[in-house]
Amino acid sequence: MQNIITVEDLVEVYSDGKKAIDGISFDVEEGEFFGFLGPNGAGKSTTIKVLTTLLRKTSGRVNVAGYDLGSAAGEIRKAIGVVSQETTVDVDLTGRENVRLQGRLYQMHGNALKNSVEEVLKLVQLDNVADKEAGRYSGGMKKRLDLATALVHKPKLLFLDEPTAGLDPQSRTALWEYLKELNKGEGVTVFLTTQNMEEADKLCRRISIIDNGKIITEGSPSELKEALGGDTITLSFTEDPGSLLRSKAKAILGTVPGVTNVIDSDDSVIAYTKNAGRVVIDVVEALGRDNVRPSSLAVSSPTLDDVFLQKTGRRIRSEELNAKRETEASILGGVS
Ligand SMILES: Nc1ncnc2c1ncn2[C@@H]1O[C@H](COP(=O)(O)OP(=O)(O)O)[C@@H](O)[C@H]1O
Ligand SMILES: [Mg+2]
Fold first, then answer.
1. I need a labelling partner for 58 at 20 to 30 A (CA). Which of 39, 96, 287, 290 fits?
2. What domains lie within the chain, and their CATH numbers?
3. Which of 13, 14, 48 most suits a substitution to test ligand 1, by most atoms within 8 Å of the C-beta?
4. pLDDT tens digits, 97-139
5. CA 13 centroid distance within chain
6. Sign of CA dihedral 184, 190, 196, 200
7. pTM for the full model?
8. For the chain, what percentages of helix, strand and coil (3-state, to nearest 5) are there?
9. CA distance 282 to 253
10. Angstrom distance (rounded) from CA 183 to CA 21
11. Residues whose beta carbon lies within 6 Å of some atom of ligand 1
12. Strand partners, 7
């Protein structure tokens, strides 16, 4: 398979001196669904802006859709579609007018434009509301309109910057379906960024995990999770002044046979093991001997968040977590 994106040692330093991208290299194959997973501020949007010609690179080599970024930015722009993190919908225009306007910007006209506009509106299921002003659309509908707009000129490569951030779970799942269809059915190569590990896991054939402007690991979601070596046993300590119980638990877990690695984060301690079914009993016994009682214990398969945690010692603050906190905050605010 041919590479549709090649990035070698890309560096991006903003004018204030901030090094947002610190020498990253990666390839994306034609037809692939490729993801950049990382927390807020990792450098995902900066990478997308450079690759889509919106931001001039500081150094490194970038080839997109067969064109060199340094010398053929115009050609790249014609070959790609971009859905940026912020919506670009014009709220005073109807859905259809938004898409048509974008098509015109790509020099499309006549029947080719008309047919393509109808096709993409149908693809994102906005055809029945296409004559309504986009300002009246919900967040999920606006995102779908952004997607339609990015697709009107039939790009073979689509960049999506956190496309489901802020969407409710139902709109998110719906968007996932359109993106899968676009990739599998229409053969569009997708480069997607996300903070949502479930999204990366579900959609992407291959991901790079990015943190502080560096790629910390790369592979298929299942490869990355399998590399952690089995299941996780998570002990939570919510009532733990001075984190005493947590440090004790960490030390104890390290001595239990079959535990391959122990990590602590926030209010929990996580043990990795190939055989959780058997090891969990030894863990409980060992903790009991020292009278260390967690507030909860859970056995699960590792997630991409565990991959991030093992590499960085931190968790990816996923959109869902943030959204949940906001909802909780607003409910609390509403009660008082
Ligand atoms: N215009 C800018 N000027 C200076 N620093 C910036 C600018 N835009 C982003 N940054 C910084 O660069 C880093 C990467 O940002 P960004 O690419 O937006 O991350 P992400 O999209 O992964 O959340 C962050 O530390 C951010 O604060
Ligand atoms: Mg971003």
1. 39
2. 3-223 (3.40.50.300), 229-301 (3.30.70.100)
3. 14
4. 999 999 999 999 999 999 999 999 998 999 999 999 999 999 9
5. 23
6. positive
7. 0.86
8. 45, 25, 30
9. 9
10. 27
11. 14, 16, 18, 20, 38, 40-46
12. 26, 62
What's the rounded Cα separation, in Å, for the pair 123 and 119?
6
Distance between CA atoms of 54 and 47, rounded to whole angstroms? 10
The protein residue whose alpha carbon is closest to atom 27 in ligand 1 is: 41
- Which of ligand 1's atoms lies nearest the C-alpha of 161? 21
| Nearest ligand 1 atom to alpha carbon 162 | 21
Q: Which residue has the tokens 């002044």?
A: 241
Q: Which long-range contacts (CB under 8 A, 24 or more apart) does 63-72 make?
A: 63/3, 63/5, 63/6, 63/7, 64/4, 64/5, 64/157, 65/4, 65/5, 65/156, 65/157, 66/4
Specify whether the CB–CB gap between 292 and 248 falls below 8 A. Answer: yes
Determine the distance separating the centroid of ligand 1 and the alpha carbon of 54, expressed in angstroms.
14
Per residue in 203-254, pLDDT (tens digit) is 999 999 999 999 999 999 999 998 887 899 999 998 888 889 999 999 999 9
Q: State the alpha helices, DSSP H only, in 71-189.
A: 73-79, 95-105, 110-123, 139-151, 169-184
> CA 181, CA 147: separation in Å to the nearest integer?
13
Q: Which two tokens stand for residue 276?
A: 């959780």
C-alpha closest to that of 228 among 283, 274, 275, 281: 274
The Cα–Cα gap between 200 and 141 comes to 22
